[in-house]
Amino acid sequence: MALFIDLIPPWQSRALRDLPVILISVLLGYVVLVRFLRYQRADEMARPFGEGKRSLSSMTTDEAHTIMSNLQELEFPSAFTKARTISLLKAGGIPTMSKLFAVTGQNNLRNGGKRMIDTEVILREAQSRHPGSERYMQAVARMNYFHTRYRKAGKILDEDLLHTLGSGVVEIFRVVETEEWRKLTDVEKCAVGIFHRNLGEDMGIPFTPLSSFSTGWTNGMHFAQELYDWTIFYEKMVAEPRPSNDAYVRVYVDSGTKSLPKAVTLLTRKLVASELDSTMRKSLCLESPGPILLATLSTFRLFRKFYLRHLALPRPSNAAVKPVDDQPNPITGLYNFQQLSMRPWYVRPSFRNQWSLSALVLRTFGGRVPKSSEMKYHPEGYDLMTIGPEPNAGKGIDEMSATIDYMKARGIAECPFKRTIH
């Protein structure tokens, strides 16, 4: 090598000798740039609050919505998607809820997939739209319509709904904590708490089981932590394995791999189990993931954290991951769902949705891709005023309109933790 360098011109020889230093300098410069840009968004969200500035109790609903949008569209889109999925699955680990799913006829291979997508669409709409928007109010009104008769009949307990609300907090905190490149800040936890406080009130869920209900919460983070703690406590108190829980998992987990070897189904069940604590894993009748799978997943998460924190530039605003479409389908006036699943409910047929890598993987696992000819899956999109099980199609419009009118007349709370609770 030295002889080779001696044979080339001096200026090229110096360049070759300096190349490692140059490459290391460029790499270090890039890492410093990533570190500088990576935390800018978090610093910007936290800037109005803190020592000598505004208290967290002064955070407004508008500010909380902006922070929630940044978190789920730019900072942690994959974490929020997983948190929604796991929190919805955990509802089936509460015996009263899994029993209700069974008796309504929605917990079967024919209806289960659509019920899960409908629930996720409504939750995404509520989680991503501004609380004063028409779409947020429609999503909440549709949820309330579905729940009302079962609550009146005592088939859905107030505690069950509070658990479902709290599972959203638990999973957002847990997934970001264990899988993302940084932890949530106190300001971000406060925003999560404000969102769930407002949503719970709009759904008419009593907060009486929470320890500070009578005295009030100091801010959104205080509320979120109490709701988190109570949710875990409630799971330990009531969650236990039941046949209805097992049937729930067989519909929502096993059915996705029914056309594949049993080993794939078992692996899928263990992957799901790895996202749950022992209480909910046992209640949902799932197998333990085992040390080898857990070690593999932990290694992958460590590499992902390192890459995102030190090597990946932050996601730009023009590449935001939207939970739902901002604009309706220009042809139908309805809203399409962009997330591909085993059955393409509400997904608009397009070259990307039919031939992308995700679509090809779904085909391999027996999934279907959207086609204009398959109207069964509603490729035209969904309407929040009518979405839901077929027996409820077109029903509840008057009740929903009354709920929406009430929410409009009441307005939204500017600072939820600067007003009287009762």
Please describe what this structure looks like.
The chain is built from 18 helices and no strands. The N and C termini lie far apart (81 Å). The chain has 422 residues and is mainly α. The longest helix is centred in the N-terminal third of the chain and has 29 residues.
Overview features:
mainly alpha
The number of helical runs is 18
Which oligomeric form is depicted?
A: single chain
> What gross morphology would you assign?
globular
Integer-rounded radius of gyration: 24 Å
Draw up the topology in text:
Layout: H1 2-6, H2 10-38, H3 40-46, H4 61-75, H5 77-90, H6 95-103, H7 112-128, H8 134-152, H9 158-179, H10 186-202, H11 220-238, H12 243-252, H13 262-273, H14 278-283, H15 290-310, H16 351-355, H17 357-364, H18 397-410
Summary, kept brief:
This protein is mostly helical and about 425 residues long. The protein is built from 18 helices and no strands.
